[in-house]
Amino acid sequence: MTYETIFTPWQSLGGGVLIGAASILLMATLGRIMGATGILTGLFSPEGFPDWAWRAAIMLGMISGPLAVMLVTGEMPAIDVPVSTTMLIIGGFIVGVGVTYGSGCTSGHGVCGMARLSPRSIAATATFMVATAITVYVVRHMLGG
Amino acid sequence: MRILTSYLIGLIFGVGISISGMANPAKVLNFFDFTGSWDPSLAFVMGGALLTTFLGYRFVLRNPKPLLEESFKLPTRSDLDVPLIAGSAVFGIGWGIAGFCPGGALPALGTGRTEVFLFVAALLAGVFAAKAMQRVAAAKSASA
Question: Which Gene Ontology CC terms are recorded (chain A) (predicted)?
Fold first, then answer.
């Protein structure tokens, strides 16, 4: 399995600016934090229809993202999964537990919370960035995954 | 209006994630693999998103209220507690194992790839398991 990927500073920066633009627009219109975890889990919480509806609409919009990219470029965004299905499922479950206790993930804490200079988000982001780096090191260079 | 606005915001987010590389586990994992096949792209994603949002929030949060709602819904807590730090560490471990984070995986569902659906299903199972554990803990502390 090959791990090499091409460095894409401009696409990544452009994508980052769009992620930021979406976060600003959500705050400017509905006054909410753009957090993927909150939007997903809110779909399954009993808060009532108005909140469910905007979250469902954002979800649909997100899912349309790759399709819009395909319409323009003729190609789906690349998704290369260099881990086994077992690791994908175990990792997914662990992510679900972590974001629930940690009250957020890369979008909510890492972008929106950090942009508000929230101490909780800064601490959360620093923690998960370090934990992810250690995990990747252990999996790839100590366990040989 | 709220629905259309939300859809368009989700679309902008989804396009951003798609072109940034955040939906691609190989790129995400390589960002963290400093001693191996390092790909610094993700620093540009997070840097671009953070700087844009930081500047935009300066203007937006000066208004008394958002355009379509009566008030801003902002988290108000500022204390650091064990669930926040431990939860974030656990999230990082899962992210390092799978290579997908929720913000990357949700838009990636649009590609129709089986791997993304498996990850999101496992993610939801983890969320429900954690919420169940939180309810049990809350019930215990209420009855104690």
Answer: plasma membrane
